[in-house]
Write a structure and sequence with these properties.
binds pyridoxal-5'-phosphate, 279 residues, 15 strands, alpha+beta, 27% helix, six-stranded antiparallel β-sheet
């Protein structure tokens, strides 16, 4: 772990990330020693900084920090946390804050390869996402909704939980974005009220647009999910997981474009077994 450019584990107890969740984070996949989708992660971090009024760090410096933590490791996860730093009177941000940067390396999650191949089982979470347009899309440190939602199931066979907004519209998974396939067309919920604007979601949208099959951002209801031909989830580490069941309904994975599943594979960690075939 590195804190503000130095190896270490200690942080001032006055850090606003701890007190108020006053900060942002990025979780990056690293393969062959290189962070994937680096520009996309940096662009989202910069947007988040603008939203919160935190000075955006130089991406070159961040890359240097990440590389220092990666060493020669081939395949890992890097979590980058940027807080506003310490101080301020109560909630009021300090006039001249000095932000805190934490870079941590993790072993990649060891999910079964079948989750990529055959799809994942997903539950419907009771915990709702609050509607807050000023924070919608931002990967900020306040993640208590996801913590509560993830506490709703303990069955290791269940990979993800789908969360609705306060008005009952399905929005995203606890750690992933949601896509729906209907009659060969792709849809995803808009993220203007709540949710995290995933870098992999954006990537899927770019790939689909380049292919001439643009993803439509559209409010999705439980009725739409029931009528869908296929569903899938995305994030920067997993890439793409087809959904094989959600809240008791089974889905075929065949409706998900093959080209899309293949195009996403090299952009994420994917299953461990695919590493052997890559090498
Ligand atoms: C709540 C939430 N939504 C969506 C995502 C997907 O974001 P990304 O594609 O940037 O990993 C994440 C990732 O952790 C998440 O925590």
């Amino acid at each position: 772990m590195r804190i503000n450019g130095q190896p270490g584990h200690a942080l001032p107890a006055a850090d606003r990330g701890l007190h108020y969740g006053d900060g942002l984070f990025e979780t990056l996949a690293v393969t062959r020693g290189e962070p994937l989708l680096w520009e996309a992660h940096m662009a989202r971090l910069a947007r988040g900084c603008q939203h919160l009024g935190i000075r955006a760090p130089d991406p070159e410096l961040l890359l240097h920090e990440c590389r220092s933590e990666i060493d020669a490791e081939q395949r890992c996860v890097i979590k980058l946390i940027l807080t506003r730093g310490s101080g301020g009177r109560g909630y009021r941000p300090p006039a001249r804050p000095s932000s805190t940067l934490i870079v941590t390396r993790y072993v990649p999650p060891d999910h079964p390869a079948g989750w990529w191949r055959d799809g994942v089982r997903v539950v419907r979470c009771h915990t709702r996402l609050a509607i807050q347009p000023r924070l919608a899309g931002v990967k900020h440190l306040n993640r208590l909704e996801q913590v509560l939602a993830r506490s709703e199931w303990s069955d290791p066979q269940i990979a993800e939980g789908l969360m609705c907004d306060a008005e009952g519209r399905p929005v995203e998974g606890t750690l992933s974005n949601l896509f729906l396939v209907r009659d060969g067309r792709l849809f995803t919920p808009p993220l203007e009220r709540c949710g995290v604007a995933g870098v992999m979601r954006a990537q899927v949208m770019v790939l689909a647009a380049e292919r001439g099959e643009p993803v439509q951002e559209q409010d999705i209801t439980w009725g739409h999910l029931g009528e869908a031909d296929a569903l899938f989830l995305t994030n920067a580490l997993i890439g793409l997981w087809p959904v094989r069941s959600l809240a008791g309904r089974d889905y075929a994975t065949t409706g998900i474009p093959r080209w899309l599943r293949q195009a996403v594979m090299p952009l994420a960690l994917g299953p461990l077994e695919s590493i052997a075939t890559q090498a």
